[in-house]
Design brief:
The structure holds 2 protein chains of 2 kinds. Chain A is mostly helical. Chain A has 16 helices and 4 strands. Chain B has helices at residues 44-51, 74-79, 97-106, 123-136, 151-164, 181-194, 207-213, 231-236, 238-250; strands at residues 6-15, 18-28, 33-37, 59-64, 67-68, 82-84, 169-173, 199-203, 216-221, 224-229. The N and C termini of chain B lie far apart (44 Å). The chains are: A mainly alpha, B alpha/beta.
């Protein structure tokens, strides 16, 4: 076995181990719910990146396949009553996703680029509109509920308890991740990259770019449908929200945030977005604002996404520059944290002052009155001082950082 | 008698009211190395794009091995055994050099849109890609992204991608443009090697390349072929000297 193959095997083993052991560490009821949700978003975001990262298709309507997969799975669950084992229910969602991928993909993949993005938006809106017009099938805003633990049980596994549901999600996450990774390395997967880079040249090596895009949309519809099927089983309710533009937007954000240029990027993005959506929402009402800021900062400063930051640090480590970089980070940590605290304080106070939030504003265990001048002046002063401290510190450590950058450049040139 | 590898009859191309190609007749025999020369703006690159189906013809017929190909799509024409390179380098810039070549061999080996087998395990495709890299002298750069190759390396890869699919009719559009003297000599040597036993149609400005490489030469001026013959005949042709060679001889 080559070194590369052995490294890959280790990565897969770690991935499987994390999936298997996560509930032992995070065993509380809420944490388990969160893990299930993460797993579902992981599959959904990976399927989205088959389009965005691998084929270069920006879709604004990917939730269509997820939502339809979920709806058809819940109908199958209600109709099938034990005839089809629950374990294979996500496959129903996948086949539904594949079917709609074939039908809708035929329309959307006539063109690439901006036209594709616009058509995907149009198709997404159309399906979302249908979902409100036919509430009997789509469930409308109230949703359709099902019961995953009805029907026959094998070895006492009912999928009623959340932990059993988690392992069902985890098994599908592992299988789908392996399948999508393998797919990216097949002739179709490679040609998807080629079409992304240069559709014209792909034609002159014998491939029809439309066909490549069509097949990628159909197959990514399959995996999005599996994610939808898992969601239907996990929540036991599906509503119109699941195929809305909001859901399409969320998977785009997760994929971009994680890094569309790396296979593992969407996995990272899915985990981070799920955490922000739930944990951050528990701490502050302003979470969508922070979410927006984080996304904006990613687009502006780290277009490669979080995975590219991780890769950068792996290269730092390999180049033996970790200590030098660590010194820079340590020096910058305090002033940057101070800036963040000041900004957060101002955002939170603004929310409190608007009267939207109950009770006084608390930070560092102290109460502040958001409607008086004192805390605001204090926050502005802290922000100003911390910003100056940032600049001052950066000037001192910049030469060291440049050394790191140079050493890395020399390392990669070798 | 077998049909010529490539035959054009009365091929025309208009962009709006502007006629770029005005009735071109051209025959390229099997195994022949044919050069297409002419002043800037004569329509050489457009003619290439018509033959390779990048643009549709306005009138006329184009036959590849006796089969009409006008109106077909570029990938259809490619699958019938015609492959082209581009004047401006046109690669899969984010893929590695090796991937570029392997993508170019997949269709011809029958892998089509396969999504059930690993590309790394297709022994024939990988061997063929490595062999092409060997021939174009880029084996040591196999794992580098095509986008960061030097200009001459990109031109070599452009030729590699063009010939990789095993097409028997090769169209090269100014393969040595922008190269230094030594690089040009190496490129000509490379072209001679990789087109051995195949039919070649080449657009070229460098006369030493044309007369060193071609069996036959055609001269395109303002969208018409004004002369066609062996290099010696072309050199002696008065019309050609006036239209084209005269200018370069004095330069």
């Amino acid at each position: 076995m080559t070194r590369g193959a052995r490294e890959r095997l280790v990565v897969w083993a770690v991935y499987a181990a994390v999936l298997a052991l996560a509930p032992l560490v995070f065993s509380k009821g809420f944490a388990l719910t969160l893990l299930c949700q993460m797993g579902i978003v992981v599959v959904f975001a990976l399927s989205y990146n088959m389009l965005l990262g691998q084929t270069g298709l920006l879709s604004f309507g990917h939730a269509v396949y997820y939502g339809l997969g979920a709806i058809i799975t819940i109908h199958a669950l209600n109709l099938g009553h034990g005839k089809l084992p629950v374990v294979f229910m996500p496959l129903v969602g996948g086949i539904a996703g594949l079917f709609f991928g074939v039908v809708l993909g035929y329309v959307t993949t006539r063109r690439a680029g901006t036209t594709f993005a616009m058509i995907s938006l149009g198709v997404g809106e159309m399906v979302a509109a249908c979902s409100l017009m036919f509430p009997a099938f789509f469930g409308g805003e109230a949703g359709i509920s099902g019961n995953r633990s009805a029907g026959t049980h094998f070895f006492g596994i009912t999928f009623g308890p959340q932990i059993q549901m988690y392992y069902l999600v985890a098994a599908w996450v592992l299988a789908c991740t392996v399948a999508m990774h393998a797919l990216s390395r097949t002739p179709l997967g490679r040609m998807a990259n080629a079409v992304r880079d240069n559709p014209e040249r792909a034609q002159f090596v014998g491939y029809d770019p439309k066909m490549v895009r069509f097949m990628m949309v159909a197959l990514s519809g399959f995996f999005a449908g599996v994610a939808g099927g898992l969601a239907a089983l996990n929540y036991e309710i599906v509503n119109a929200e699941s195929l809305s533009a909001r859901t399409s937007g969320l998977v785009l954000l997760a994929t971009y945030l994680g890094g569309m240029g790396f296979f593992a990027g969407p996995i990272v993005g899915a985990v981070v977005v799920t955490l922000m959506q739930t944990l951050l929402a528990m701490v502050t009402k302003a979470w969508p604002f922070y979410f927006g800021v984080v996304f904006l900062a990613t687009v502006l400063f780290i277009p490669g996404g979080l995975a590219s930051v991780a890769m950068l640090h792996k290269r730092l480590w390999d180049a033996g520059q970790a200590r030098r970089a660590g010194v820079v980070y340590a020096a910058m940590a305090l002033p940057v944290t101070a800036v963040l605290c000041a900004v957060i304080a101002m955002v939170e106070m603004a929310y409190h002052a608007s009267g939207d939030v109950e009770g006084p504003f608390r930070m560092f265990g102290r109460e502040f009155d958001a409607n008086s001048w004192g805390p605001w002046i204090g926050a502005v002063l802290v922000l100003a001082a911390a910003s100056l401290a940032c600049r001052w510190t950066w000037r001192r450590v910049a030469p060291r950082w440049n050394e790191v950058a140079q050493a890395m450049a020399a390392g990669s040139a070798r | 008698m077998s049909a010529p590898a490539l035959e054009l009859a009365g091929v025309e191309k208009r962009f709006g009211a502007t006629e770029i190609v005005r009735g071109v007749d051209l025959r390229v025999a099997k195994g022949e190395r044919h050069a297409l020369i002419g002043p800037n703006g004569a329509g050489k690159s457009v003619l290439f794009s018509l033959i390779s189906a990048r643009f549709p013809v306005s009138a006329g017929r184009i036959a590849l091995h006796g089969e009409e190909i006008q109106g077909k799509r570029p990938h259809d024409v490619n699958r019938r055994g015609l492959s082209r390179s581009f004047q401006v380098t046109n690669l899969f810039h984010r893929l590695s050099v090796f991937e570029n070549v392997r993508c170019a061999v997949l269709w011809s080996l029958g892998y089509r849109y396969s999504f059930w087998r690993s590309a790394d395990k297709l022994r024939d495709a990988n061997e063929r890609a490595r062999e092409i890299l060997e021939r174009i002298g880029l084996s040591h750069r196999a794992e580098v992204s095509a986008g960061i190759l030097s200009y001459a390396e990109q031109r070599a890869l452009e030729i590699g991608v063009t010939i990789a699919g095993g097409a028997d009719v090769i169209l090269l559009d100014e393969p040595t443009a922008g190269m230094s003297r030594t690089e040009t000599e190496q490129a000509v040597e490379l072209i001679r090697r990789v087109t051995e036993g195949r039919t070649l149609l080449i657009v070229e400005h460098d006369m030493s390349v044309v007369f060193g490489l071609a069996d036959r030469v055609s001269v395109l001026v303002y969208g018409r072929i004004v002369a066609s013959g062996t290099p010696d005949e072309i050199r002696a042709d008065a019309k050609v000297r006036e239209a084209y060679l005269g200018a370069t001889a004095h330069a």
